[in-house]
Design brief:
- This protein is mostly helical.
- 81% of the residues lie in helices and 0% in strands.
- The chain has one domain.
- It contains six helices and no strands.
- Helix 1 runs antiparallel to helix 2, helix 1 packs parallel to helix 3 and helix 3 runs antiparallel to helix 6.
- The relative contact order is 0.19.
Length: 154
């Protein structure tokens, strides 16, 4: 699996920046939509690159690209989710000042007894729903990355 070291490296880089932007230099304003959109664009491109890398010496390039993209997506997003679980629980006093978390908790106060419950419920739902969906998207983008490798060689 040629994409594994790449996936762990990318996941570690994203985790580092999550820690910086949520703990070291927290922004208590609402999330910037442009920055979030750009982050998704970069992530999805990296999933395709994972497929491209994984299909390098394979006979079935599309299949190995899909596997590489899916594994890259699973590892990178899994590490991102683990980082948020760590940061949101260990540094709760810092992240609970974020405008988006305050607004979400305020709207869901009748469902949750504390900010920690609200945050952890979001993390749990993300791991149940988002991680499998992103893994499938990673597989699709990885196969596109592998297809581009085969087309570039022609």
């Amino acid at each position: 699996m040629k994409a594994l070291p790449y996936a762990f490296l990318i996941g570690a880089i994203f985790s580092f920046f999550i820690f910086l932007t949520n703990v070291v230099f927290p922004n208590n304003g609402p999330d910037n939509g442009t920055a979030v959109g750009f982050t998704y664009l970069v992530l999805f491109s990296l999933f395709g690159l994972g497929g491209y890398i994984n299909s390098r010496q394979s006979k079935d390039k599309i299949k190995s690209g899909a596997v590489g993209g899916a594994i890259t997506a699973f590892i990178v997003v899994g590490l991102i989710m683990l980082t948020f679980a760590f940061v949101d629980n260990v540094f709760l006093s810092t992240v609970s000042k974020q405008a988006d978390k305050i607004a979400g908790f305020t709207n869901a106060k009748n469902q949750f007894h504390s900010m920690r419950d609200y945050i952890n419920h979001g993390l749990l739902m993300g791991s149940i729903i988002v991680l499998p969906v992103v893994t499938i998207i990673g597989g699709l983008l990885g196969s596109i990355g592998a297809f581009s490798r085969s087309e570039l060689k022609k």
